[in-house]
Amino acid sequence: MGTAEQASNEIIHYLPMQVDFLGMTVHMQTLYMSWLACIITIVVVWAITSGSKMVPGRAQAALEMFFDALGGLIEKNMGKEGRSKMQAFFFTLFLYLLVANEIGVFLPSIGIHFTSPTNDMNTVFALSILVMVVAYIYGVANKGIGYFGHFVKPYVPFLPLNIVEEIAKPITLALRLFGNILAGEILLIVLYKLCPWVIPDIWVLFSLFVGVLQAFVFTMLSIINIAPSFVGKH
Predict the structure, then answer these.
(1) How many domains does the chain have?
(2) pLDDT (tens digit, 9 = 90+) per residue, 68-117?
(3) Which of 1, 10, 61, 215 reaches 20 to 30 Å from 224, CA-CA?
(4) pTM
(5) Distance CA 14, CA 177 (A)
(6) Is residue 226 a contact partner of residue 86, using CB atoms and an 8 Å limit?
(7) 172 inside domain
């Protein structure tokens, strides 16, 4: 372990970070926090919906309002068929991102530093690749092999540029989320060390807003990326 890493560990005490498995390095803290985000998401939704009523309470009403609002955005970009098939997917994606982004804010340092799973490039790239795979699956299902015709539009010589653009989509989608969450957590840790009162609390509120915003931005960009798979369906 290098001097810089030792100094870092004196300030931030992580869970066991990585283990070797079948020749691969597995970042255990990312897995722990990803599982925790999944559990929290499931428990919150179950708690709100298990006692659903015809006359909803505040929590149920808020959840239904957001579900309908998100459905409206999906329908605007993908049509009614896109909404019926993809609304549950995007709703789940947003809720998971919301919880995952905020874990590192609510639990910045309690003996061990609990990080958001979305501050790990493996997590955000997995999510962005998932979005692109879904786009390809529905694109081929709805339009056949002709879906890939957009690679040679408006002209065949544009093929290399269109391939670069296609590769750049999941990269930019992932890095935007990764950069914002990681930077926010690093600054929060620094503020707690330099000035443990008032200022970190203000930054926590701002970080909460950033977490919500980034979850929404990632979801909206995912909708935009998948939309061509439904728009102009033959």
Answers:
(1) 1
(2) 999 999 999 999 999 999 999 999 999 999 999 988 777 655 445 578 89
(3) 61
(4) 0.83
(5) 22
(6) yes
(7) yes
